[in-house]
């Protein structure tokens, strides 16, 4: 009877009690902290690749940076965005103990990403002609094209890696992802050293090292799912969803019609999820392009590169928060507990505002020291330090916005987030940036006020 009373109290429309908020904070951050650590490790891997490109020379660094930017825009952002379409499906399926839908959705997303990788691979193969048509330096373009060609296998690894991450996170399995990423990234530095410094493979060696690192992540994650018996537990029907035999699930998975039949509904969620993430991701690349038209383009582009690396690091927490609250909201909605879903959303948004405030604080206090970590060139250091507080202020709104998009994905409404990003970044942000930087002659800092 006591449990029944507590349940009725919790599903009422009264304000949540302090113990309920604390319990939700514990559940949320038990997921967020490992995912944040994983995101930081992925960030470190990217920095290591850039460092080894820099050791090869300025041409290799410029070509590699061009290729990395191109692959991020045309490939990785699309793969991550499409895979995020799994969030509402898998999280709600897990909450309702619909194991068949959970597993089939993973398989369907792999098929979707395989189909998406075909046009992406054509773009990567033709990076050279595309960049030359856009007026890029031929030497830099040739180096970038070489990197891109050797990075092609990474499309296949990401067709498994990205859906697996969402699949596990939707089931609140986050620590194994962190440890698998740590193990893979631990190989990244010696692998780069061996391929670049010992074997002298140059730019292809850096690209191959990144591919192998991602492949190790995939193997470790698949191994965890297999060894832990997660799949066997999910199909055994241990819950309200009823009993399902392994043979039945295998039969469903192997049925082409069953697999293909659900692609359409999943695509209707995946495409707006992809647009919401890509629109935000691509905007920062547009800032680099706009920086090239300022009075001192070399200084502006160099400063933009440092600031984008900074925002990428700051983004690790809100990105983890968005993914985890999406899972929390989806789990509770799937389990028929909308009150707990609302509580999870409110707690996550409050955390996002706190994270944003912390970003403002450290970008103001440590702006000179942070700029000095990247460069000793005084004009560049001064420019970066002057814009750092503006970047931090932007994160005060960007953190809740990213978290809000995660909540919308968890409720199965990613199109709303896509419209918000389209309006805020392109209909408002871009005109404001252009107006401040070029029309009002504020210059580089004007780009970041938007």
State the main characteristics:
mainly alpha, membrane, 0% strand, 86% helix, 2 domains, 450 residues, MATE_euk, xenobiotic transmembrane transporter activity
Short description:
With 450 residues, this protein is mainly α. The protein has two domains: 37-254, no CATH class; 271-449, no CATH class.
In quaternary terms, these chains amount to single chain
* Overall spatial form: globular
Question: How is the biggest beta sheet arranged?
Answer: none
Q: If you compute it from the alpha carbons, what radius of gyration comes out, rounded to the nearest whole angstrom?
A: 23 Å
Number of domains: 2
User: What share of residues are in beta strands?
Assistant: under 5%
- Report the helical percentage: over 70%
Separation of the first and last Cα atoms: 56 Å
Q: Please count the helical segments.
A: 21
Q: How many extended strands?
A: 0
Find the structural class using helix and strand composition. mainly alpha
């Amino acid at each position: 009877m006591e449990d029944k009373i507590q349940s009725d109290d919790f599903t009422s429309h009264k304000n949540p009690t302090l113990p309920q908020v604390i319990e939700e904070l514990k559940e949320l951050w038990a997921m967020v902290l490992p995912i944040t650590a994983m995101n930081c490790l992925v960030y470190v891997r990217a920095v290591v690749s850039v460092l080894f490109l820099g050791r090869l020379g300025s041409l290799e660094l410029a070509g590699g940076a061009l290729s990395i930017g191109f692959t991020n825009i045309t490939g990785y952002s699309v793969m991550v965005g499409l895979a995020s379409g799994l969030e509402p499906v898998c999280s709600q399926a897990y909450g309702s103990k619909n194991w068949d839908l959970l597993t089939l959705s993973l398989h369907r997303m792999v098929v979707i990403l395989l189909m998406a990788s075909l046009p992406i691979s054509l773009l990567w193969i033709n990076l050279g002609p595309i960049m030359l048509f856009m007026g890029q330096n031929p030497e830099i373009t040739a180096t970038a094209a070489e990197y891109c060609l050797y990075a092609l296998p990474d499309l296949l690894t990401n067709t498994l890696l990205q859906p697996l991450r969402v699949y596990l996170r939707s089931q609140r399995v986050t620590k194994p992802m962190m440890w698998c990423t740590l193990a893979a990234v631990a190989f990244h530095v010696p692998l780069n050293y061996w391929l670049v410094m010992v074997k002298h493979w140059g730019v292809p060696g850096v690209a191959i090292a990144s591919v192998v690192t991602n492949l190790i992540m995939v193997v470790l994650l698949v191994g965890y799912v297999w060894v832990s018996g997660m799949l066997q537990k999910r199909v055994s029907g241990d819950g309200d969803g009823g009993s399902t035999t392994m043979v039945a699930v295998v039969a469903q998975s192997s049925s082409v019609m069953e697999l293909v039949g659900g692609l359409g509904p999943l695509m209707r969620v995946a495409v707006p999820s992809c647009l919401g993430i890509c629109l935000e991701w691509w905007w920062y690349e547009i800032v680099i392009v706009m920086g090239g038209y300022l009075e001192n383009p070399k200084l502006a582009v160099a400063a933009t590169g440092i600031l984008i690396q900074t925002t990428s690091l700051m983004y690790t927490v809100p990105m983890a928060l968005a993914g985890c609250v999406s899972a929390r909201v989806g789990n509770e909605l799937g389990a028929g507990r909308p009150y707990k879903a609302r509580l999870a959303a409110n707690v996550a948004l409050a955390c996002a505002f706190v994270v944003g405030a912390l970003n403002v604080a450290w970008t103001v206090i440590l702006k000179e020291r942070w700029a000095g970590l990247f460069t000793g060139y005084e004009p560049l250091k001064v420019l970066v330090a002057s814009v750092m507080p503006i970047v931090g202020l932007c994160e005060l709104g960007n953190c809740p916005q990213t978290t809000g998009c995660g909540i919308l994905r968890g409720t199965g409404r990613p199109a709303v987030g896509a419209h918000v990003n389209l309006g805020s970044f392109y209909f408002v942000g871009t005109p404001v940036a252009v107006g401040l930087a070029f029309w009002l002659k504020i210059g580089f800092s004007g780009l970041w006020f938007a």
